[in-house]
Write a structure and sequence with these properties.
Helix content is about 65%, strand content about 0%. It is mainly alpha-helical and about 200 residues long. It has one domain. The mean pLDDT is about 90.
């Protein structure tokens, strides 16, 4: 991963690779990820773990729902990664591999397969909210396969967070904020669609 000297450098490289106007509702996502990945690229103890990749893919996918044209979505993701020295192919590959492995993992055995989530074997690794989002996504995947209720999933998130070395209060806060932002995004898209239909009439 190549570190960028400044956020201005990263943004400049991003717009060279993705020279398109981003609709306002999606611009915040692009700006936040540009800054966040830039900062992470400068963290000595940050590692691109499977849980991070899972979280980044889920975050980007959720907050680009409805983006048009559709073929720009992958281009934008690649540009956000590339401008900060991240390899989009590596991130996609790790996330896909983890998703495949989760299909054969049961919740009660997850703590025994912690290397699938975090392959650094180090509690010194730098924490990012994207890791919490990835952990939340992992639990949703397993929970949907086993029909597990939300309380049990929350308990397991706390358990796994402790094993990996995350601060539980930060994980809980980041997941809660993520859920809230998804609700806000959904509402905003609904309003946009309603206005579009009204104009169409």
């Amino acid at each position: 991963m190549i570190q960028r000297s400044t956020i201005t450098d990263s943004k400049s490289d991003f717009y060279k690779e993705f020279p398109y106007v981003i609709p306002p509702i999606y611009r915040k996502l692009a700006d936040e990820l540009l800054v966040e990945l830039h900062l992470l690229s400068h963290q000595k103890n940050f590692y691109i773990t499977p849980v991070f990749c899972f979280g980044l893919i889920d975050l980007f996918t959720v907050f680009t729902i409805g983006y048009k044209p559709n073929d720009h979505i992958t281009m934008m993701f690649n540009a956000i990664c590339n401008c900060n020295g991240f390899k989009a192919d590596e991130i996609n590959s790790k996330a896909e591999e983890l998703g495949t492995k989760l299909k054969s993992i049961r919740l009660k055995n997850l703590s025994e397969n912690i290397d699938l989530i975090d392959d650094t074997n180090s509690k010194e690794s730098y924490y990012s909210r994207i890791n919490a989002i990835g952990l939340y996504k992992i639990m949703k995947e397993i929970g949907s396969n086993e029909n597990i209720d939300s309380n049990d999933l929350d308990t397991e998130i706390t358990k796994i967070s402790t094993i990996i070395g995350y601060q539980n209060d930060r994980v809980e806060k980041d997941i809660s904020l993520y859920k809230s932002n998804i609700d806000k995004m959904t509402q905003a898209l609904e309003i946009i669609e309603q206005n579009r239909k009204k104009k169409g009439n």
